[in-house]
Amino acid sequence: MIIDHTNRRVLEVLESREKAKVKEYLQAGRASGLFAAVEEITTDMWDGYVEAAKEAFQGNVRVTIDRFHVMQNFQDRLTEARREIQRELSKEEALALKGSRWLWLTNEENLTPRQRDELEVLCRQFPQLGKLREQRETLRRIFEDHRIRTAEGGTRRLQEWIAQARELGLKALDAFCQTLVNWLDKIANYFVNRSTNGPTEGFNHGLRAILWRAFGMTNFRHFRARVLHTFGTPKPQPQ
Question: Is residue 145 domain-shared with residue 182, that is, in the same domain?
């Protein structure tokens, strides 16, 4: 799915996510002038999308990895790291952690006072898990720090975070750090305009709703026509 963030609409639905198909569409749009004003492309961490954009625009656009996909990747690795720690605990200690997954993965401001107290007790009881939770909050604060206004500034802060995270010595967290290193320049591009794929996720929900209402659609052309009819009209810009 190709989203026009400026006009808040679905621009196109492609039948395949293969790099060749995405690149072909982008090149055709560039040749026709449709993408003449494109300055930035946001995407998730899928090589096909990133390479298609780079090649189709010949490096003349900023490619930004969506911060929410970065945090989702971290959430997955955090869960693995938590399990890695739990495997080293006694049965009694592991029992104390039962049912606490939501506390470790939820933003602090979304916890009730009672839940914050519960989490504080767990952090004292399991200091390594507490440090893991702290790394999560620190990473989130970096993305939300509006004092960072350049890709270079974002790169420095993320590199500092990587160094601290690796000191914990957890395999799952090391894997995430390597993911950050591999995609660092494109993740850091977020700090330039703070562009995200948030609207894309909203449209994805709308596409799923179309499928639900139709009890599934096996004909791609019909599905594409329905999506473009429903979500392809430019939205009025705020005054």
Answer: yes
Q: What is the DSSP string of 147-187?
A: T--SHHHHHHHHHHHHHHHHTT--HHHHHHHHHHHHHHHHH
In a domain, 20, yes or no: yes
- Say if residue 81 is in the same domain as residue 182: yes
| Residue 178: other Cβ atoms inside 10 A | 12
- What are φ and ψ of residue 28, in 5° steps? -65, -40
Instruction: Determine the structural domain holding residue 177 and report its residue range.
Output: 67-186
pTM beyond 0.90: the answer is no
Question: Rg of the Cα trace of the chain?
Answer: 21
pLDDT tens for each residue of 181-231: 999 999 999 999 999 888 888 888 898 898 888 887 888 999 999 999 999
